[in-house]
Each structure stands twice: as structure tokens, then as C-alpha cells.
Design brief:
heterodimer, A: two-stranded antiparallel ribbon, B: 72 residues, 3 helices, elongated
């Protein structure tokens, strides 16, 4: 198959056998479930994450994204300013580094285009949220603290996340609002969650319960 | 004291043998996974360092498939 001729095929098996190698690699490369499919360069840097259909066409499509990343990297290395900015944005999106390092790399690269700025703002927020989520444990205090920071980010005008970070972001804001009896914030967070997950039948019970909470909060406010 | 040490040693030995049995089970599942059709039908590298080496040598990116054997 052509695909296997264009790429080095590497299979990592999490075995839970203590003596087996590379058992921490899944987590190190940002995976949190199976199967997890990514393209990497020879140094282990992620070039693309597979989010398409798991068929030959899908893999080829993601493979092209990986090749496009390498081409962008080469263009940036030649001094192309726009490519340098696009590369930092692409690296941030792939999780090569966090928000702080991305901003350091971007300073001195000149003015970003409108499209670059919009994409960057979204990614910086997502990266910041991921950093905050690393501090969250089963301890309620850590969850409350994270929710508080997310609300501060929102009030500071930072856009709400659209990707995987959206769920924990809004849930933690929602939980704090319920505790603080903040009807306005609770309603907004609930609405945001419904917009994203309202069609999921598995979430029906959750939304039913939270609608009841909202009703109670509104009655108590009167 | 001697009795307590005896009980503690027995508990430790039992614990260790349970762990060993669990590890044997995991190794068996791994070996079964290694015989999967997808692994035998193409040239998959199973060692990350070797995959990186091959990628550097050939200039080809790595396509990495993360899976598990300890559970279905």
C-alpha cells in the first residue's frame, strides 16, 4: 500500500507489563484514550493528529496535513515572516508548547493578519485553560479555583473555548455559579453547554437536573 | 515479634505472587495482541527509538498508532 511506503509505521501497545518499553509515551504525546493516531517527525514532535475517518482516505488526508506542517517549517526556516507566525500557531495547536512560550516566540515577528490573530486568540485561550486544568484534582478546592480563573478570563474578554476545553470550562463555571447562587452566570454557562451538548441523549439527565437548579435559583432571587 | 514478622512475610509473599500472576496475565494478553492481523500484515516498528531512527534515516514521517492489550 502506498501509505506504508510514505511513512514509518510505529505501533505503541500499552500493555501494563512493567518491563515493557515506551509505556508512558501515550500520555507524553497527548493521548488519553484508544486508539490514538498521530504523525510525528524523527524527533518525536507531533506533525498532525488524526481526527478524520479511520480509513485509507482519512489517513492519507491527515498524512497530507503532516507534510504541510513540514513544508511550513521549511518555509519559516528560510525566513518567511508570515510562515514563521503560522508555524508558531500550528505548533501551539499541536501542543508543542504552551501559551506563554507561544507569545514569547511571536513577539518580534511583526503584526499578525486578522485571520492569524483570530486563530491565535482561540488557541491561546485553549492552551491557558489546559494549563489551569492540570491543577484540577478530585479536591473541590482545586475545581473551585479553576472555575474562578475561567470566569475571570471570561470577564477579561477572552473568548470561550470551542474545542475539547469547552466542557470543563463551562462545567466548572456552572458549578461555582450554583454555589455562589449567581443566576446570570449559571444561566449563561448552562446555555453554552446546551448549545454544545444539548443534542447528546446521554446528557439529557444532566440538563434536566441543571434546569431544575436554574429554576430554583431564579425563585430564590425573587 | 517473630510471629508478626512471619505473618507480614506471608502477606508480602502472597501479595508479590498475586502481582506476578497479574503481570503474567498482562504479558499473555500482550503476546496475543502481537499476533493481530494488522501487525503481521505490515512492517510495524514496535520500539519508539527505532522508529525515530528509521524516520531520520529515510526522511519519512512516523505514523503512530497507539493501542492497548490489557483490555479489549
Amino acid at each position: 500500500m502506498k501509505f506504508s511506503k510514505d511513512y514509518v509505521l510505529y505501533c505503541n501497545i500499552t500493555t501494563h507489563v512493567e518491563t515493557d518499553k515506551d509505556q508512558e509515551l501515550l500520555e507524553a504525546k497527548g493521548g488519553d484514550g484508544f486508539p490514538y493516531l498521530i504523525f510525528m517527525d524523527s524527533e518525536g514532535n507531533i506533525l498532525a493528529k488524526h481526527e478524520e475517518e479511520r480509513d485509507a482516505q482519512g489517513f492519507a488526508k491527515t498524512g497530507e496535513k503532516a507534510k504541510a506542517f513540514l513544508a511550513l517549517k521549511a518555509k519559516a526556516a528560510k525566513g518567511d515572516k508570515a510562515a514563521k507566525v503560522d508555524l508558531v500557531i500550528a505548533q501551539l495547536e499541536l501542543g508543542h508548547f504552551g501559551a506563554e512560550e507561544a507569545q514569547k516566540k511571536l513577539s518580534g515577528l511583526g503584526t499578525l493578519s486578522k485571520a492569524q490573530k483570530a486563530k491565535l486568540d482561540g488557541l491561546l485561550v485553549a492552551a491557558e485553560i489546559r494549563e489551569i486544568l492540570k491543577t484540577v484534582t478530585r479536591e473541590k478546592d482545586t475545581q473551585r479555583e479553576a472555575g474562578k480563573k475561567f470566569l475571570e478570563m471570561k470577564k477579561a474578554g477572552k473568548p470561550a473555548p470551542e474545542g475539547d476545553e469547552a466542557q470543563p470550562y463551562w462545567i466548572l463555571i456552572l458549578n461555582n455559579a450554583e454555589e455562589d447562587k449567581d443566576v446570570t452566570v449559571f444561566a449563561e454557562a448552562l446555555q453554552a453547554l446546551k448549545a454544545k451538548y444539548g443534542d447528546n441523549p446521554q446528557a439529557a439527565q444532566f440538563f434536566q437536573a441543571k434546569e431544575a437548579v436554574l429554576k430554583k435559583l431564579r425563585e430564590e432571587k425573587k | 515479634m517473630k510471629i508478626r514478622i512471619g505473618v507480614a512475610s506471608a502477606a508480602l509473599a502472597l501479595g508479590l505472587s498475586s502481582l506476578a500472576a497479574a503481570q503474567d496475565g498482562m504479558a499473555e494478553r500482550r503476546d496475543k495482541k502481537l499476533k493481530s492481523e494488522f501487525l503481521t500484515k505490515a512492517s510495524w516498528i514496535l520500539d519508539f527509538a527505532k522508529a525515530c531512527e528509521e524516520s531520520k534515516k529515510s526522511g519519512k514521517p512516523i505514523f503512530a498508532y497507539f493501542t492497548r492489550s490489557y483490555a479489549p
